[in-house]
Amino acid sequence: MITTGYNLRPILKYLSFCLTSILLLQHCASIQSPSGGEKDVDPPKVIRTIPEQNTLNANPTRIEIEFDEYFVQRNLSNELLISPPLHENPIISQKGKRLFIDLQEELNENKTYTLNFGKGIADLHEGNILESYSLVFSTGPTLDSLFIKGTLSACPQQGLPEGLIAAAYEKNNLAKDSTIFLSKPNYFSVPNLNGDFHIEKMKAGNYEIIAFEDINGNYQFDGFPEYIAFQPNTIALKDSSNTNMWLFQEEEKLKVLDQKNKGSYVKWVFNKNTDSYKIDSEPSVDFLKKMVKDSLFIWPKEAHKDSILFLLNLEESKDTALYILDTIQKNEIRIISPSNDYVKKGSRYKCQTSAPITEVMVSKVQLESEGIAKDFQIHQTDFELSFEFEYEENQSYQLTFDEGALKGLHHSKNDSTAVSFFTKEESALSGLMINLETESKDYFIELLKNGEVCERVSSGMPLRFNNLLPENYELRLVIDTNKDGKWTAGNYLRNLLPEEVYYYGEVLNLRANWELEIDWTP
């Protein structure tokens, strides 16, 4: 037996104490979620800038901004707007709590510069955004303090597009030229969602004021499809001024996008709807035509002509289409129902056709209500059928076309089909009367549902809509300056303003058995 001469009991007690202590320390050092405390809702605060706010005679090459906490950039290169705009984009960097903006060009003399940071700065942890912060300084001995403010309204549609800029250009003459296409503005601001803008820190002088949709972010108007608004005259800015403008898209130049020969007709597709065209043919033949949205359809009436060259003359261009009759291809006449199946008292049921009608076989058309045959008369044009019938309130009708009921050019006909429509009793319908206060003598008012025109009344007519379905509607007033019965766009270079468009301020909820009367002063 081997003995050591040492007592092991104290050593074991010491080891046990160490082990227990280590376990306790590990437990105490484990990471715990903090309890209580308010969430940080404050954005970073600016505590120092170089140059300082509203500094005079500044000529910085680097701008420095220090915040009270760590921050992150939120698309700052796009959010940062400098007015007057620079030709070269600055280089943006950060270190710790400081932001650096290194300018890549010399600033102009005696100018007041405004740096608007948009929503480009947020705190590191909670993402609270520093909003409405601008740094202002002058390269001259004074700070410019004049401003121009106003509101943008869109026409003919109601909503404003994104990416708008309200701009001011120093200009001494009245003529519209290429300045806005080639140069950045001297001053600008970004309108809010309601179209309100405020161009500030301006000096006295003569200015052209415009607003435009800056799709590609170059601070220049690039023509269609960008929206534009403008004042027809320059503004002599001596005191701060207020101005309102109408935003619109200029008319795009008419172009042919496609052309097809479909065997029974020729089709041209344009970049927009138009009635500014002329059609000739070689040899000279009679033909029918129909414009559907942006497409023009031509049907030759003479079947014995196997080949016809059609000549399309537009305002600034020409095109041709060779028609070759295809005697094998099946030509079908489709019936196109109206978007609204409700028929008012005193009205007829009308439907369009996809191809010309030359004959209606009345014996192959039936009108029924609740299984009972109804008498009717058909009124026919080249592309429309109008049904006159004995009107009964609160009824559903079914109109059936047997195969071959409609005959057209080149042996075309319809397949068997049916359409439905309905009537309502007067107590289930609504009415709307408008008391309009306007100085304009030429205008029309459109009743809209889901953005589509349901009905319209013009100046000189009673301003009321009768026998309406009880639903939600909107009203649109168009000042018809040129008296052509439609909204007309403006043109910047010709200094022509668009026709003004006003929307009634709220959605109209029409109820059954009730006529709503409204007062409207646009």
Task: Provide the helix percentage.
Answer: under 10%
Work out the strand percent.
35-45%
Spans where pLDDT lies below 50 across 5 or more residues: 1-6, 27-35
Mean pLDDT score, rounded?
90
Strands, count? 42
Q: Ends: how far apart?
A: 116 Å
Give me the number of helical elements: 3
Shape: elongated
Biggest sheet statistics: 5 strands, antiparallel
Helix vs. strand class: mainly beta
Radius of gyration equals 36 Å
Describe this structure in words.
By secondary structure, the chain is mainly beta. It has three helices and 42 strands. The radius of gyration is 36 Å and the shape is elongated. The model is unreliable at 1-6 and 27-35 (pLDDT under 50).
Helix/strand layout:
Elements: H1 9-29, E1 46-50, E2 62-67, E3 71-73, H2 76-79, E4 81-83, E5 91-95, E6 98-102, E7 112-116, E8 121-123, E9 134-138, E10 146-154, E11 164-170, H3 179-182, E12 187-189, E13 196-202, E14 205-213, E15 228-230, E16 235-237, E17 241-247, E18 256-261, E19 266-270, E20 278-282, E21 287-292, E22 295-300, E23 307-313, E24 318-324, E25 335-336, E26 349-353, E27 359-360, E28 365-369, E29 372-373, E30 376-380, E31 384-389, E32 396-401, E33 406-407, E34 417-422, E35 430-436, E36 443-449, E37 452-458, E38 464-468, E39 472-479, E40 501-503, E41 508-509, E42 514-520
Parallel strand pairs: 10-17, 35-42
Antiparallel strand pairs: 1-2, 2-6, 3-8, 4-7, 5-6, 7-9, 10-13, 11-12, 11-14, 14-15, 14-16, 18-19, 19-22, 20-23, 21-22, 23-24, 25-26, 26-31, 27-33, 28-29, 28-32, 30-31, 32-34, 35-38, 36-37, 36-39, 39-40, 39-41
